[in-house]
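Bench notes, afternoon.
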Amino acid sequence: MSAGGIEDMSESILIVGCGIFGITAALELHQRGHRVTVVDPGPLPTPHASSTDITKAVRNDYGDDEIYVSMMDAALKGWARWNEQWGEDLFHRTGMMFMTREEMRPGGFEYESYRFLTSRGNMLDRIGMVDLQARFPKWNAERYVDGYLNPSGGWAESGAV
């Protein structure tokens, strides 16, 4: 490496930590032609990584954050491709529900997520108290009065991935 930056793109890159971010960074850099070394006190996947629990929620509901929502839209498509490539579903598209204790209002996470996602063409299902009680009786319909169901979200078997 010179003072001005990397002269040879094939120089070795060291990644410390083999959680989901370390491993995916290593895979992406390797696919781009870099020599990559990862280190972790191990085993792999390391049980100490926050990403290596039983499940992880996967969703594109992030208020009106266009960059993050766009990244998650791409990630949801990636999960669908992986499920097909692996021949088994490690991402389960069960939907993701967001409920509030009062009517959704501008500036609130649920409202901004609902507004932004529907403006992008996402088909979300608005859920009120009556719908909540009828369709999801385990939820306390007296406490949660407004929200929506996003059918694109779900969960991943992160430990298996």
